[in-house]
Amino acid sequence: MSDRFFEHQTNQAPPVWVSLNRAVASIIVLLVVATLAIRYLPETSRRNEMRAQIQDLENKLAEKKSILQRHEREERLLRTSSEYLSLIARDKLDLMQEGETLFRFDATKH
Predict the structure, then answer these.
(1) Is 78:84 a contact under the CB 8 Å cutoff?
(2) pLDDT score of 9
(3) Which of 59, 57, 77 lies closest to 69, judged by CA?
(4) Where residue 13 falls among pLDDT bands split at 50, 70, 90?
(5) Where are the domains of the chain?
(6) What is the pTM of this model?
(7) Is the torsion defined by CA of 48, 54, 57, 59 positive or negative?
(8) How many Cα atoms within 13 Å fall on the side-chain side of residue 41?
């Protein structure tokens, strides 16, 4: 009889302890998840901000490259094309050649 008593005791855990073990395990998992979320949420938002900054800087770089290409083209034309150089000089000095008619359009922003 004593063997049966101990066998019965070891096979079945009281339902209160099982519930408490599950509750404690759930609380531990929630605490670990909450700690990880609190730790890494600022990092993800910082990463997103840095990506936006990178995109903005890449856009500015592309714009500057475009401006640089235009200036390089204009410099090349000024060095190599006497016709272009003459045109620019006359435009800046408000001069015109004989028989030439100038039309000026004001570029207004809307």
Answers:
(1) yes
(2) 53
(3) 77
(4) low
(5) 9-93
(6) 0.52
(7) negative
(8) 6
According to DSSP, residue 99 is labeled: T
- Contact between 74 and 80 under an 8 Å Cβ cutoff? The reply is no
Two tokens, residue 91:
């435009």
Mean pLDDT of 19-30: 93
Q: What's the CA gap between 29 and 4, in Å, rounded?
A: 37
Report the C-alpha gap between 87 and 97 in whole angstroms: 10
Q: Side-chain half-sphere of 67: how many Cα atoms within 13 Å?
A: 6
Q: Which two tokens stand for residue 94?
A: 């408000």
**If you average pLDDT over residues 54-58, what whole number do you get?**
98
Residue with tokens 């200036």: 71
SS percent in the chain: helix, strand, coil, step 5: 80, 0, 20
Distance CA 41, CA 31 (A): 15
**Residue 2: per-residue pLDDT:** 52
Q: Considering the chain, what is the average pLDDT of its residues? A: 85
